[in-house]
Specification:
33 strands; Jelly Rolls; elongated; mainly beta; six-stranded antiparallel β-sheet; about 5% helix
Length: about 450
C-alpha cells in the first residue's frame, strides 16, 4: 500500500495531496490539545512555477479551508473535511478536521514574493484525536423478527467502537401492517465468555405465578421455545398485585447465565380484555433478596397486544469484577393494579433490548409493501436526523431518531430489535435492518 498524506472531503470528491502536489511538507509536528482534538503543523515548501504555487495555495486556503468552515458553521452543509494518513504497511485512515489555517512565511533564502520560484507556508490543522477507516462497513439481517429478533455483529478491525453513520430499517412484506416504533441495541460480546446462549425474550408462562394467575393459550403469543400454553392470565384487582416472578434460570434452564450480563431496556408485551386502565411496574433484583423498583409506572388500557417500556436494568446490578454465575438467580417481578373496573390481564413476555449501544425510532410509517424505509443518521459531528420514505417516495417529517451511544462495540456483539404498529404488536411482523459504520482507531498507525 502506498503512503498517504492528504486532506479530502468525506466522499473524496475534493482533495489536496501533500506528497505529490506543489506544496509539500518539509517537517510536521503533532500535539494533543487535551480536549479530544490534536493540532498538526506543517512547514510547506512550494516549488515550481509561480502560477502552480499560487493555485495550490489558493486551493488549500479557499477551497479546503472554506469547505471545513462551512461544515462547522452551517448544519445544512454535509461536506466535511478529513486528514488522511497511512504508511506503507496499513490501510488509509482519516481524522475529522475542525479548522485549517494557511499562512505564508519567510524562511531561509526563499522569499514569499515567489519570484525565486519557491515559497514557504505554515499550515495548521486542528483535527480529531480519533481516526477511522475510509471504507464503510455494514451488517444486516433480512426478515428479522420484531419480537427481539437478533443479528450477529462481527468485531470491527479497529481499536475503538465503530462510528455508526446510519441505521436503515426497511419494511417487510411479512409484516401485518405498517410499523411505527422501533427499539434497537447491540449487546457487546463478553471478553471473558462467549454469549451463544443469550436470548432476549423471556416467556412469562415459564414464570412462577401468584394465586389466581393461570396459564392460558392465545393465538398471538411469543413462542421462540415452541410452547403450547404460552401466556399468563389474571383478573385484575385494586391491589398492587405481584402477578409473577421469573429468574433467568426459570426462563432458560441449563445455560451459561453470564451471557446475559449487560444493560437493557425492558419491554413488556401484554393486553387487557376491556379498555380500563391498569398500572404495571416491573421490579428486579435477586431471588430471596432485595428488589429494586424500576421507577417506571406504565398505564395500559389497550385490548390489543402492545410493547411497553418498563425501565432500564443492569444484570448484575453492581460491578461484577471477575465473578461468574451471578445471572442465574437474577429475577424480574411483574406487578399490576387496576385503576378502574376489573379486566383480564394477559402477560406474554419480557424483551431485553441492550441499552449500552441503543436507539429508538418513533412516529415512523414503515410500510409492509413496496420500498419503504426509515433511516436514522448520526453525522460525524454527532448531529442526528431521521428520514422516513414510503413506497411513493413521500417523506414523513414526524419520524424521530433517538440514539444513545449507538456504536458498534470493539468486540462485536448481538444486535436486538423490536418493533410494533401504532396500536398493536404482531409476533409475525418482520423488518430488514441495515447498519452502516466506520471502524475507528486511536492512531493512524494501527
Amino acid at each position: 500500500m502506498a503512503q498517504v498524506l492528504r486532506l479530502a472531503t468525506k466522499t473524496q470528491e475534493d482533495s489536496f495531496d501533500f506528497l505529490t502536489g506543489t506544496l509539500r511538507p518539509q517537517n510536521m509536528t503533532r500535539m494533543p490539545n487535551g480536549d479530544g482534538w490534536y493540532t498538526t503543523s506543517m512547514m510547506l515548501v512550494g516549488r515550481g512555477s509561480d502560477s502552480d504555487i499560487l493555485y495550490a495555495a489558493d486551493y488549500l486556503d479557499n477551497n479546503m479551508a472554506n469547505t471545513c468552515d462551512l461544515f462547522w458553521s452551517d448544519t445544512h452543509q454535509t461536506k466535511s473535511v478529513w486528514l488522511e494518513e497511512s504508511a506503507t504497511s496499513e490501510t488509509t485512515k482519516r481524522s475529522l478536521v475542525k479548522s485549517i489555517e494557511l499562512q505564508p512565511v519567510q524562511d531561509g533564502w526563499f522569499s514569499p514574493l515567489l519570484n525565486k520560484k519557491g515559497a514557504f507556508y505554515q499550515l495548521t490543522i486542528i483535527h480529531s484525536a480519533v481516526w477511522e477507516g475510509v471504507a464503510e462497513k455494514n451488517f444486516s439481517g433480512e426478515n428479522t423478527n420484531c419480537l427481539g429478533g437478533t443479528i450477529l455483529v462481527a468485531a470491527p478491525n479497529g481499536s475503538m467502537s465503530g462510528r455508526v453513520e446510519y441505521a436503515a430499517i426497511f419494511g417487510d412484506a411479512n409484516s401485518t401492517t405498517d410499523i411505527s416504533t422501533l427499539w434497537g441495541g447491540i449487546r457487546p460480546h463478553d471478553t471473558t465468555a462467549s454469549d451463544t446462549d443469550f436470548n432476549p425474550v423471556l416467556e412469562l408462562e415459564n414464570a412462577n405465578r401468584n394465586t389466581g394467575v393461570t396459564v392460558a393459550s392465545d393465538s398471538d403469543y411469543a413462542s421462540p421455545n415452541g410452547t403450547t400454553d404460552n401466556v399468563l392470565s389474571y383478573v385484575s384487582t385494586s391491589d398492587d398485585y405481584k402477578m409473577c416472578w421469573i429468574t433467568l434460570d426459570d426462563a432458560f434452564a441449563s445455560v451459561n447465565y453470564d451471557h446475559w450480563y449487560g444493560d437493557y431496556q425492558v419491554l413488556l408485551r401484554c393486553k387487557l380484555s376491556a379498555a380500563n386502565s391498569t398500572r404495571f411496574h416491573v421490579d428486579w433484583g435477586y431471588k430471596y433478596g432485595t428488589y429494586f423498583n424500576s421507577g417506571q409506572l406504565v398505564y395500559v388500557s389497550s385490548t390489543d397486544y402492545q410493547l411497553y417500556e418498563m425501565g432500564n436494568v443492569s444484570i448484575p446490578p453492581f460491578p461484577r469484577t471477575y465473578s461468574t454465575g451471578l445471572g442465574k438467580y437474577f429475577e424480574f417481578q411483574v406487578y399490576a393494579l387496576s385503576m378502574g373496573s376489573a379486566a383480564t390481564i394477559t402477560l406474554d413476555c419480557l424483551i431485553l433490548i441492550p441499552s449500552k449501544h441503543y436507539f429508538k425510532i418513533t412516529n415512523a410509517i414503515l410500510e409492509n409493501s413496496g420500498f419503504s424505509s426509515v433511516t436514522g443518521y448520526i453525522s460525524e459531528d454527532n448531529l442526528t436526523r431521521c428520514e422516513n420514505v414510503n413506497s411513493s417516495s413521500l417523506v414523513n417529517m414526524a419520524a424521530q431518531f433517538a440514539p444513545n451511544n449507538f456504536s458498534v462495540p470493539v468486540a462485536g456483539g448481538i444486535f436486538v430489535i423490536a418493533a410494533q404498529a401504532p396500536a398493536i404488536h404482531y409476533v409475525t411482523d418482520e423488518v430488514y435492518p441495515m447498519i452502516y459504520y466506520y471502524e475507528r482507531y486511536r492512531t493512524h498507525a494501527e
